Amino acid sequence: MPSNSSPVAETPKVEAPLVEPVESAETDEATSSTPSENRKVHAALTRSSTGSADLRELESGLDSLQSDAVRKPGIDWSRILLPVAALVVLILVWQFYVSLGFKRRDQVPGPMDVLGQFGTLWAEGSLQEAVWTSLQRGLMGFLISVVIATPIGLLLAQVAPLRRAFGPLISGLQVLPSVAWVPAAIIWFGLTDATVYFVVFMGAIPSIINGLISGVDQIPPQYRSVGTVLGASRLQMAVQIILPAALPGYLGGLKQGWAFSWRSLMAAEIIAVGGTIGFGLGSMLNQGRDLADMTIVMSAILLILAVGILIELLVFAPVEKRLLQRRGLLAGSTR
Question: What confidence tens digit (pLDDT) does each residue in 177-204 have?
Fold first, then answer.
């Protein structure tokens, strides 16, 4: 009996050194995170509780492990210098074309002519008024569109009969140019801000709804199964499971909805002039056309373009990058 017990007692001593290097190698190879993040994941994995707090902690730990490999310290100057270089090249090409003299300067003004017109409009105060009026209308109309479109999109995505009934109509409204609503809106609401907002709504809401539905369609069915097992109600399922999981598609719908609302706003401001409608960028564009002043027209076009680019860079791009980073989807991306 003594001779049989000694090998059994020595067995863990022989195997223990073999197990530890394998585990440490797997941990080092699988993660490039800090020790605190590893402890967070390990603590969440080894807990016996499956509460929502533990799940959130585990999710945040895993997200940090996935995204650490693509995080870059400091400022990526290429994101600033490359767009500036492209802009300088375009301005030089513009000036070169003007210097060739194919068109009269009153038809194709040069960059310095447009810059001088910017200074004149700024001194008059009309530039600030136009930008503020259009930006206020665009943001307000877009936010109201989001509030309206989000519950409708969730409802259509969750209820199959409603989607079959109204899905084709929503898709048709998305394809319909929103400028087609301007004459009807003028007849219904007159030359008021209600006309402009109505056109913005009709441009943004269908895109947001379809984007949300597309995001819901891409959710794995296991998510719904987990929600059902945990006893989630329809409202909890939609708000706490479906909507967060559909964020990539939803964000795409929001970006497209903003683009459509901004274009719809410009169309409405160009056509609906007078009454109690304020002076916006579309009104400035229309004013330049009436005066046959291409410097005003080009100034308005560049301002419309600049606002659209700034909203994309300052609002949507950081949110989208953060979302993809949290889900570990930035590896190999050109963002």
Answer: 888 999 999 999 988 889 999 999 999 9
In whole angstroms, give the CA distance from residue 332 to residue 330: 6
Residue 278's identity, in one-letter code, is G
Instruction: Considering only CA atoms, give the Rg of the chain.
Output: 29
Q: What are the helix (H) ranges across 178-293?
A: 181-189, 193-217, 221-229, 234-236, 243-245, 247-271, 281-290
User: Per-residue pLDDT tens for 192-243?
Assistant: 889 999 999 999 999 999 999 988 888 888 877 877 888 777 778 777 888 8
User: What is the domain class of 109-326 according to CATH?
Assistant: mainly alpha
DSSP string, 10-44: HHHHHHHHHHHHHHHHHHHHH----HHHHHHHHHH
Separation of alpha carbons 320 and 149, rounded Å: 20
Give the count of alpha carbons within 13 A of 253, CB side only: 27
Give phi and psi for 236, each to the nearest 5. Answer: -65, -40
- Residue whose C-alpha is closest to residue 268's, from 205, 207, 208, 201: 201
DSSP string, 87-107: HHHHHHHHHHHHHHTSS-TTT
Query: DSSP label at 334?
Result: -
Q: What is the pTM (predicted TM-score) of this model?
A: 0.71
Give the contacts of 91 (CB within 8 A, at least 6 positions apart).
111
User: Are residues 60 and 40 in contact, defined by beta-carbon separation less than 8 angstroms?
Assistant: yes
Would you call 102 exposed, middle or buried from its count of C-beta atoms within 10 A (0-12, 13-18, 19+)? exposed
Average pLDDT over residues 139-145: 93
The Cα–Cα gap between 138 and 215 comes to 25
DSSP 197-220: HHHHHHHHHHHHHHHHHHHHHTS-
Phi, psi values for residue 51, rounded to 5°: -70, 170
